[in-house]
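ingest -> validate -> predict -> emit
validate: passed (alphabet ok, no gaps, 532 aa)
predict: started
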Amino acid sequence: MSELDYHVSYASHRVPMMGRNAVATSQPLAAQAGMRMLQQGGNAVDAAIASAMALTVLEPTGNGIGSDAFALVWDGQKLHGLNASGRAPAAWSPQRFAGLSAMPEIGWEAVTVPGAVSAWVALAERFATLPLTTLAQPAIDYARDGFPVSPLIATLWQRGYNKLHQQPGFADCFAPAGRPPRAGEIYRNPAQAATLQKIADTRGEAFYRGELAQQMVAFAEQHGAALSLADLHNHRVDWVEPLSCPFAGGSVQELPPNGQGIATLIALGILEQWDIGRYQPDSAPWLHLCIEAMKLALVDLDRYVSDYDHLEFPAELLLSERYLQQRAQLIDPDKAGDFTFGSPQQSGTVYLSTGDANGMMVSFIQSNYMGFGSGIVVPDTGISLQNRGCGFSLDPQHPNVVAGGKRPLHTIIPAFARDARGQPLMSFGVMGGPMQAQGHVQMALRIMQHKQNPQAAIDAPRWRVVQGREVVVETGIDRNVLAKLREMGHAITLEDPLLGYNFGGAQAIVRDEQGFYIAATESRKDGQALVF
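emit:
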């Protein structure tokens, strides 16, 4: 995209990086792990797997070996979607959680089958050029030899400890000195190093069928949990066809449910109906329409999205031109609205992006969900388990109601975009639970519609719909614009992104028409983009 504007900028000391190979992650050492693979002759998938495995060590506050994962891979000719999220234990049912108003957020009753390991293996088998043992080596080295904990991660680590230190296995693994590591201290996890080695040596078999599986299940049984060897053995990844929506002369791709990516596409489709490009970015009319479109998308997400096999109707109906037109007509350009879901049948972490000189690009995300996830850590393994089970509903009439062998609604979503010719334009993602679909909309608007360079788009002040007319915005938006939004009926709350951590980190790699990459990463957090 040679027409990108490199003069626009927001509060940041960073500039976009450019090169024929690129890695952008949320942690500098993880970016180096991926870059090492590219320099050894590996491709973008090799780099993505190495970075993802390293992140389980370097950023345990957001992901771990027991995470789930999703990916979009451009192989040079075609875009492939990977859903490696886990399913509920077979013994789960609404009756198991009777008497609760919502699914548990911590402990064993929040743990579904972890899928991240299967994502690494599936990607390696289909696309990688280097052995999995090579890809795992940086992560193993960081776990065995240790790494210095950054200030931000130390803060999040303390928060996680305050919440989860009584969960089985947590304190022994993540507070071996009787407290979480402080900023600048070296943290080592030799048990995790050994586990990563076993995973690499057996290409995941030890995790789903062997020694590690047996350790997980024994610990589950010790605490009365439902996870069984059969649950782990029956886990499988799904290669899926991405959903796509035209936008700004190109298109945006997201994975189909059980993820929330469809909310991004609904919002962008509604904004296309409003010809959003005619409005000045960051102006009150522009922000108002973006917020209203996102609100419409989120109420549909909340009502309809579940495991793909349990949808009430094909997800594509939510993206039909007719339906998007109907939803767009509900927006009052001068007033904030209160929306409910529509009726289309009438006729939510660490994110990373990589790209190589041969044109392969990867958009990859993995997460424990709420920080450290469930708080459960399997003894002597370093396996911290996600809490994705809390994504289920307990409403028996809802398509996302909990059931054995079913995938819950997921917040983590990778994104991709193509240009008018169908060629790869951008691999991008935003972390942060319910912020992710909203962040994707804002990134696509700024880069695709308004031609902002990716670093400016990442640094720009973000907004986040909470519920109803409640909107949280980052400090940095013009006060006159905020006053106008309040006049329109929006309930605006200001939040410092460096204090709240609720606007998510972001990474993006844009492919220029000349064949090189423009990489950018989050300046609010510890992100790092590397190129050569």
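The two ends are 18 Å apart (CA to CA).
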